[in-house]
Amino acid sequence: MDDFQKLKQIIFSNRSFLLTTHINPDADAIGSQLAFYEILRKLNKEVFAVNHSSTPYFLQFLDSNNVIEKFDQQNHSQLFQKVDVIILLDLNQTNRIVKMENYFREFAGIKVCIDHHQDPENAFDYIFGNTEYSATGEIIYDFIKSTKIVELDYNIAVQLYTAIMTDTGSFRFERTTSKVHLIAAELLEYGVNPTEIYDKIYSQNHFSKIKLLGEALKTIQLDDTKQIAYMIITNTDIKNTGADESEVDGFVNFCLSIEGVKIGILFFELKDGIKVSFRSKGKIPVNKLAAEFNGGGHLNASGTRLFNVTIEEYLPKIIKAAQNYL
Ligand code: 5GP
Ligand code: MN
Question: Which pick of 92, 118, 158, 187 has the fewest CB atoms within 10 Å?
Answer without folding.
Answer: 118
